Amino acid sequence: MRSNKSWILLFMMAIVPLVGIWAMNNPGVVAQVFLNLGGIKQGEAFPQISGEEVEGDSFRLESWKGKRYVVMVARIDCEVCQSTYPTLEKNRDILQKYHFVMVGKGEKEAYRQVKAAHAFPFPIVYADEQIQKDLKIKVFPTFYLIDEEGKVIQRLDGFDEGKFLKMLDELKKG
């Protein structure tokens, strides 16, 4: 009996650090398993939001029906969101040619300044209370790749440049 306890203890001493290392290298998976990250899940229909673009024009996702597009949900004071700006700048041509929109929680004027400072060619839509409710926003940034039928085919919580660039490759296929 004592021998079995020793083996179990040895097994636990080996497996716990391995699980910990895996969890630290895969925080997105761990977060999805243990936390309610909110938002729209893969396979679900994405809400056809409409709102005011920060430069004053109206914007409706419905106008992109039948096309693939990417929605980035951001918050103006989010450091991770701000860390995406250089990547968005480098991919300006792709984001302009294909359909990309940033839905921003925060002051509209602050987003207008961000758009001007970075020369973003894509719409930035102010996330009013209704949009925030429709999108069930909890995590920033979150990227959604939406298919031609309006369903989420890929979701990226947080920002990983490699995964984001793969998402843009998928966007171009549509």
Automatic annotation (TrEMBL):
Source organism superkingdom: Bacteria
Parts forming coiled coils: none
UniProt KW Disulfide bond keyword: yes
Regions that span the bilayer: 7-24
Pfam families in the cross-refs: AhpC-TSA (PF00578)
InterPro entries: AhpC/TSA, Thioredoxin-like_sf, Thioredoxin_domain, Thioredoxin_ResA/DsbE_sf
Swiss-Prot/TrEMBL keywords: Disulfide bond, Membrane, Transmembrane, Transmembrane helix
Claim: Transport is one of the keywords in the record: no
Domain Thioredoxin: 40-173
Entry-linked PANTHER family: THIOL:DISULFIDE INTERCHANGE PROTEIN DSBE, THIOREDOXIN-LIKE PROTEIN HI_1115
Name the record gives this protein: TlpA family protein disulfide reductase
Naturally occurring in which organism (per UniProt): Ectobacillus funiculus
